[in-house]
């Protein structure tokens, strides 16, 4: 359990430039992946919607899925940059 009556200690963190870049890259990768998954969900929702005309659904869903794929590729490239140290 946490002692809520204990005085608060301030902790200072110091990161090297490489460590900071890795932290930022991981956060960026996670966000790109989330956006890609959100667009995939939008495409699935759109395709399942019967009130939208089929011609509109196909074109819009294709764009959602294409952008989603591009975002996920960017996320993978960002992780590869961390793994290989390509900065």
The whole-angstrom Rg is 21 Å
* Element order: H for helix, E for strand: HH
What percent of residues adopt helix (DSSP H or I)? over 70%
As an assembly, this protein is: single chain
**Coarse morphology:** elongated
Strands, total number: 0
Task: Please tell me the overall pLDDT.
Answer: 86
Strand composition percent: under 5%
Number of helical elements:
2
Low-confidence stretches: none
Helix-and-strand structural type: mainly alpha
Instruction: Characterize the largest beta sheet: strand count, sense, and whether it forms a barrel.
Output: none
In whole angstroms, how far apart are the ends?
A: 42 Å
If you had to describe this structure to a student in words, what would you say it looks like?
The chain starts with 16 loop residues before the first helix and ends with a helix. With 87 residues, it is an all-alpha fold. 72% of the residues lie in helices and 0% in strands. The protein contains two helices and no strands. Helix 1 packs antiparallel against helix 2. It is elongated.
Offer a concise description of the structure.
The protein is an all-alpha fold. It has 2 helices and no strands.
Supply the key terms.
2 helices, about 70% helix, mainly alpha
Could you outline the blueprint of secondary structure elements for this entry?
Elements: H1 17-48, H2 54-84
